[in-house]
Design goal:
Layout (H helix, E strand, L loop, with lengths): L2 H5 L9 H47 L3 H29 L1 H18 L6 H15 L2 H10 L7 H9 L1 H17 L9 H23 L12 H13 L15 H5 L2 H30 L6 H29 L3 H20 L3 H22 L12 H12 L1 H17 L3 H18 L14
Length: 450
């Protein structure tokens, strides 16, 4: 070894046109192979989470539920979800996505289907808690899984194409759930029982499919050539910051990183954002019905689908723009503020068209902010802490999902209106946007999106 090579790091490899073309070819191939399947899994994950919002249109009366009790059932889902999301991600990192995601999908599909047997508030509470426990590892696990396959420069678009499953599910699920509720009385089952039956069992079948389709890492993917595997490995490895040998002994522990102000701020920002995600997912059908009281359940379902169509368009366009400009901070802040304004418009406008427009703004802003938000935490965490860190931030944020149904349900019962609950969600979005401005988010070099 010469003195020059011993004292100076090797020069970075020259990136010629062929290398760039190969990298883009690999990203396109990974996108084609993975994103449609992950999207499909997320569709049924999210459907099993939000279908209680549509079931509530008839289930509340059948089971004698007040708004507070209905909200508490949803809160119990998130208590189970929060409690198990961190250990679930730890298990995924050890067992691999194929085995773990497949197993939990089968478990939550069975638990969601079993909700059709709820016969009282207490039994509904138990069943929704079980759905939360079994589903807990899916989203944080998938967010971690995407970091194994997509370099950060391409991840906003990948996240958006994966996460549009949420508004797409809400849109299709809105129309589909309204139709399923029309099966009231068939075979002696209520419409809401049909809802849990027909929307829960597909998750079990998809869980079985996961075992055969997913690979745990690029190095195990037979559908990538050796050259493509190596190119992807180089792109992912290049993202790991170089740590000088002298700094290794001063490196913070994983536990210290989890308790750091950075992780706390990420969690608080996501908490503020998730309140609106929960608001859209759980309460949209009932909010729409509150200003269209004479509409049928099928009409409510179709109206509730409109904001989700807007959200899908917004997520794809905004994610591509964020990747092209390699800017994250303001691509999170502006959508959060748009969402806050949307809730205010819904709460205080007396015009049904303006109120529906407000829901469109709130949904589009919140979901676009979320898809860009999840490109940022891994850059502030060490590689060793990434699995736990993503789960901690997700769990902290989803405390908002647990609180929102109870708070909004109680405010609805107390004021006989959704306006105060919408004001609550709007205020949290403004606070969350302010926190995002303080996060350690680096700006990359602008590039042409593939």
């Amino acid at each position: 070894m010469t003195l020059a090579t011993a004292t100076h790091p090797p020069a970075p490899p020259i990136r010629d046109a062929a290398t760039t073309q190969l990298e883009q070819q690999v990203i396109r191939k990974v996108s084609r192979h993975l994103l449609w399947f992950l999207f499909l899994l997320f569709v049924f994950s999210f459907l099993d989470r939000i279908n209680i919002g549509f079931a509530g249109l008839t289930m509340m009366q059948d089971l004698g539920l007040s708004g507070t009790q209905f909200g508490f059932a949803t809160t119990l889902f998130y208590i189970g979800y929060i409690a198990c999301s961190i250990p679930s991600n730890i298990i995924l990192a050890r067992l691999g996505a194929r085995r773990w995601i497949g197993s939990i999908m089968i478990a939550w599909g069975l638990a969601s289907t079993a909700t059709m047997f709820a016969s009282s508030p207490a039994s509904l509470y138990v069943l929704r808690f079980l759905v939360g426990v079994t589903e807990a590892g899916f989203l944080p696990g998938m967010l971690l899984y995407l970091t194994f396959w997509f370099p950060s420069a391409y991840r906003a678009r990948a996240n958006a194409l994966f996460m549009i499953a949420m508004p797409v599910t809400a849109a299709i699920g809105s129309a589909l759930s309204g139709l399923i509720l029309g099966l009231e009385g068939h075979w002696g089952l209520s419409g809401w029982q049909w809802l849990f039956l027909l929307e829960g069992l597909p998750s079990v079948l998809l869980g079985l499919a996961v075992y055969g389709y997913l690979d745990d890492a690029p190095g195990k993917a037979s559908w990538l050539s050796k050259l493509e595997q190596q190119a992807l490995a180089r792109m992912l490895e290049a993202e790991k910051p170089a740590v000088p040998p002298a700094a290794v002994s001063n490196k913070p522990s994983v536990l210290a990183e989890m308790c750091s102000p950075t992780v706390l701020k990420f969690g608080l920002a996501y908490f503020c954002l998730v309140n609106t995600l929960a608001m859209v997912a759980v309460w949209t059908p009932l909010i729409v019905k509150s200003f269209n009281s004479g509409a049928s359940n099928t009409t409510i379902g179709l109206l509730a689908a409109i904001p989700q169509v807007c959200t899908v368009i917004g997520m794809i366009a905004w994610g591509r723009r964020s990747d092209r400009l390699q800017e994250r901070r303001w691509h999170i802040v502006w959508p959060m503020l748009l969402s806050a304004f949307g809730w205010l418009l819904t709460a205080y406008s007396g015009n049904p068209v303006a109120q529906l427009l407000g829901i469109c703004m709130a949904s589009t802003g919140a979901y676009t902010a979320m898809s860009v938000f999840w490109t940022t935490p891994d850059g502030a965490l060490s590689f060793a802490a990434r699995a736990i860190g993503i789960a901690v931030i997700n769990a902290t944020g989803n405390i908002g999902s647990a609180l929102n149904p109870v708070v909004v349900g109680w405010l609805k019962d107390y004021t006989n209106s959704f306006a105060t609950g919408l004001l609550y969600a709007s205020a949290l979005l403004v606070v969350g946007a302010a926190i995002v401005l303080t996060l350690p988010i680096a700006r990359g070099k602008a590039k042409h999106a593939i």
